[in-house]
TrEMBL record:
This is ABC transporter substrate-binding protein. Keywords: Signal, Transport. InterPro entries: SBP. Residues 1-22 form the signal peptide. The keyword Signal applies. Belongs to the bacterial solute-binding protein 1 family. GO terms for biological process: maltodextrin transmembrane transport; maltose transport. The keyword Signal applies. It comes from the Bacteria. It comes from Bifidobacterium callitrichidarum. GO terms for cellular component: ATP-binding cassette (ABC) transporter complex, substrate-binding subunit-containing.
Length: 417
């Protein structure tokens, strides 16, 4: 549903966007007075996932509660009344778009929603200090995920959202896991070929709306040899050692030992660790070979981040708290309490013994492409799934793979020149 908020929000958004406030100095009267000299009464509404608001099994306070308390200690100039509601990162954009003026002052969101949030002027531009924090803490992909079509920055990441490879160390050596072809020659693997978030990982050279995912006019560009890659996938799907992971069946197969490698994200780690024990392995994505050329599998990559609403009654405090949710201290606590893998590079020592964190970090740095937050990205999902289904149903064959790929490319984008 598209809603034009420009007239309704014109003055409010214009003023807010002219004052990038995240973690900046300056005065702001807020919506309250001072309870004591130099202390401002502030009310902040916050949206966060249920898991971040739940107490630990040991009775410890929830992550969000602890972060809010820490923020208060760091900002004695505020006397804050918190109003927390449960809204997941995946649902934030939909709720903000319904009415940005009624949305929370601070919320957590998935970076692929950035374009929609900007369109309704429901996300605030980062200020100087927050931009510095963003760039110091994060790698290029994370920074790009927070970059708007205007070249400005919105939101502070606190974890990555991508997929990588789990494997059984008893089946594959460190050298084996560098090549998918080697792996499938030795043991069964599971991959969700008809999942549109995954199938694009084989089209090495695929570009989604420019290098940084912010160029709508660039569109979706497929590599010139996409037809040959499709032929490779036809052969892959026909291999007896290839299992398609339908409805996450690969996770069950991995834990049962039916397959020895499975492609998924950090959310599958606990189950696989429990099943494999000392044989548990995780790594960035392998290569594969097409017509004698080495190709790199590349997962779609995004981030989860905190942002402030420019329509907030206390935009300065809201911007500061949004940046604080993604701070080094908050990310460290997030990992300690919920095993949420941080994006902050300074926390790498925290995860040196965590193979899942290492695999995710390496994937983001080496074997991933940015999942664009532009609305045009919506054109990818259904056709990509349909193409994966067609391969599995043998509607795409070695003989017609080029023609079928041409049809897919024409539907959603174009070939590289």
């Amino acid at each position: 549903m598209k809603i034009n908020w420009k007239k309704a929000l014109g003055l409010t958004a214009a003023v807010a966007m002219l004052m990038p406030l995240a973690a900046c100095g300056g005065s702001d009267s807020g919506n309250g007075g001072s309870s004591t000299a130099g202390t401002e009464d502030v009310t902040l509404s916050v949206w966060a996932p249920q898991e971040d608001q739940a107490k630990g099994d040991d009775g410890s306070e929830a992550w969000l509660t602890q972060v809010e308390a820490n923020f208060e200690k760091d900002h004695p100039e505020y006397k804050i009344t918190w109003k927390n509601d449960v809204v997941s990162e995946g649902d934030a954009s939909t709720k903000v778009q319904t009415d940005p003026t009624a949305a929370a002052d601070v919320y957590m969101f998935a970076s692929d929603q950035l374009g929609a949030l900007m369109k309704v002027q429901g996300i605030g531009e980062l200020g100087t200090d927050a931009v510095k924090q963003l760039k110091e803490q994060n790698g290029d992909l994370e920074v790009a995920s927070m970059t708007g079509t205007d070249g400005k920055y919105y939101g502070v990441p606190y974890t990555d959202n991508t997929w990588f490879m789990y494997y059984d160390k008893s089946a594959f050596s460190d050298e084996d896991i560098k090549s998918l072809d080697t792996m499938i020659s030795k043991a069964a693997i599971s991959f969700p070929l008809n999942d549109s978030w995954y199938i694009g990982g084989f089209y090495d050279g695929l570009q989604l709306f420019g290098e940084n995912g912010t160029d709508e006019s660039a569109g979706m560009v497929f590599p010139k040899d996409a037809g040959d890659i499709s032929k490779y996938l036809v052969d892959l799907a026909a291999n007896p050692n290839f299992h398609n992971s339908s409805d996450n069946s690969g996770l069950s197969e991995m834990t049962e030992g039916t397959v020895k490698a499975f492609f998924s994200g950090s959310w599958s780690a606990a189950d696989i660790k429990k099943a494999l024990g000392d044989n548990f392995g995780a790594a960035q994505l392998p290569t594969f070979t097409v017509n004698g050329q080495t190709k790199q599998m590349k997962s779609f990559a995004a981030t989860k981040a905190a942002a402030y609403n420019p329509n907030a009654k206390n935009p300065k405090a809201a911007a500061q708290f949004a940046a604080y949710l993604g701070s080094t201290e908050s990310q460290k606590l997030h990992y300690e309490l919920r095993n949420i893998i941080p994006t902050d590079k300074s926390l790498s020592s925290l995860t040196t013994d965590d193979p899942v964190a290492i695999a995710q970090t390496n994937t983001m740095a080496n074997t991933a492409i940015l999942q664009s937050g532009l609305a045009g990205m919506g054109s990818w999902w259904d056709p990509a799934k349909a193409f994966g289904d067609a391969i599995l149903n043998k509607e795409v064959t070695s003989d017609n793979a080029q023609a079928k790929t041409d049809e897919w490319v024409k539907q959603v984008g174009k070939y590289a020149e």
